[in-house]
Amino acid sequence: MTIQQDTPSLSLADLDDVIDGLLASVDGLSGAQASERLAQVSRSVAKLSAYRVALVAKIQASQVWRDKDPNATPVTFLREELVVDHQEAKADLRAAASFERFPELAQACRDGRVARDKMDLILRIGSRNPARERALPRFMNIFIDLAAGAPLSQLRRALELWADQVDPVTTARDEDDAHHRRELHVVQRGNGVKVDGFFGKTQGMQLIAALSGALDKQWRDTHNTAGSRAGGGARGGARGGGEVPVAERVAASTAAQRADAFIDAIIMPVLDNKLLPTSGGAPATICVTVPLTRLQNPTAATNHGDIADRLADGTLRLGSASIRATNGPAESVISSLAALEISCDANVQRIVMTPAGKPLDIGRKTRVIPEQIRAALILRDGGCIYPMCDKPSAWTHGHHIQHWSRGGPTSLDNLALLCSTHHHKIHTDNIPITIDTNGKPHIHTGHQTKYPT
């Protein structure tokens, strides 16, 4: 649709009608037509952003904000009229001022070549201080061409490199500021633990290096295990017979894979090898406390009368499973199913207690799955036995087919290797596992029965 500039009756309501018509026509488009329209829409959005900036420039020049409040400012006017935050209002005014100073940038936006986010990035980095402002006009056309043909990340990288070389002092100050803003928050939230942090570039890159190594190990172990099962011999191979670059493996990882790699390859080796100082003689690890009756019947509800009694005498906590860090204050209630899953392959210590919570007898700590049995498990199972799963043995837990808490023996014919995801699924969905006459475990996914919620 072409609209002549000399159409005096054109209004934004007409534009709304056009957009409504375009929305109504989407279902009738083919994939190719949708792709073509999408490219056109991107240009139109850039032009509309240029129109918005031109309106802001007109508002600023007219000083219309003084009509309501003589003491108002353009920023406060835009915040109230457009319901935007302070930073967005300032970005609008900065863009409006740039259209007069850099007519080539204004034209690129009006032509739909440079989107608003890219324009804001150029101005935010290029106008950071007087040193950059003095240098920016010489490079503006270069940045416009780059913005028209490159994604936002590539433009940001070029601007950061440019800023560092025309203004190295500010780069150093920003790094120092980032270092002083470093933080790490670990809080119990909802049904889990939330980790949120910020690091300067040096510490942040150390974190990325460690996580990248963990993901690389995860990929190699998984590939090697899958290759050995298929009869392949080359270690560390990849599709097409070559090595997949580490960067590609890391970039393609999912959030869940990064979470698993962080715990299994970074946190667990530190805890398992006791590389952290003890607290009161106890190694840094996690401890689960659970009543034996809950392990034996993890989905059975407790008698309401017993719950009322425990509420009254303050011992209600003794009726549920809890997990805590042995060297810190963190503690949380966990389900009996989770405790059952953890008990499959853990150090277990029996403590006999009175109903009031007083310990009467402490048994010796025993290893549920000895190392020699785990070695035999690895040879037999190779990795996670769940159908279509190729997680290697290094990423698996030892699972008791007949739960240990219900008298299941710690023997090869009562154990199977499962990755963290499928170990959790086996317990949650109550999926049966059997051992055939050749001593191989088989998972019966068709007979799964979710525990009642």
Short précis:
This protein has 453 residues and is an alpha+beta fold. 51% of the residues lie in helices and 13% in strands.
Q: What is the element layout, followed by pairings?
A:
Elements: H1 12-24, H2 31-62, H3 74-82, H4 86-101, H5 103-110, H6 116-126, H7 130-149, H8 152-166, H9 168-180, E1 183-189, E2 192-198, H10 201-229, H11 246-251, H12 255-272, E3 286-289, H13 292-296, H14 304-313, E4 321-325, E5 331-334, H15 336-342, E6 347-353, E7 359-367, H16 371-381, E8 396-400, E9 415-419, H17 420-429, E10 433-435, E11 441-443
Antiparallel strand pairs: 1-2, 3-4, 4-5, 6-7, 8-9, 10-11
List the total number of helices: 17
SSE series: HHHHHHHHHEEHHHEHHEEHEEHEEHEE
Q: How far apart are the first and last residues' alpha carbons, in Å?
A: 57 Å
Q: Strand order within the widest sheet?
A: 3-4-5
Structural class: alpha+beta
Helix content: 40-55%
Q: Which percent band covers the strand fraction?
A: 5-15%
How many separate domains make up the residues?
4
The largest pleated sheet is described as: 3 strands, antiparallel
- Report the strand count: 11
Shape: elongated
Rg estimate, integer Å: 32 Å
General description of the model:
The chain is an alpha+beta fold. It folds into four domains: 30-175, no CATH class; 211-227 and 246-275, no CATH class; 280-361, no CATH class; 369-453, no CATH class. The chain is 51% helix and 13% strand. It has 17 helices and eleven strands. The chain has a three-stranded antiparallel sheet with strand order 3-4-5. It has a two-stranded antiparallel sheet with strand order 1-2. β6 and β7 (359-367) form a beta hairpin. α4 crosses α5 (103-110) and α15 (336-342) crosses α17 (420-429). It is elongated. The chain starts with 11 loop residues before the first helix and ends in a 10-residue tail after the last strand.
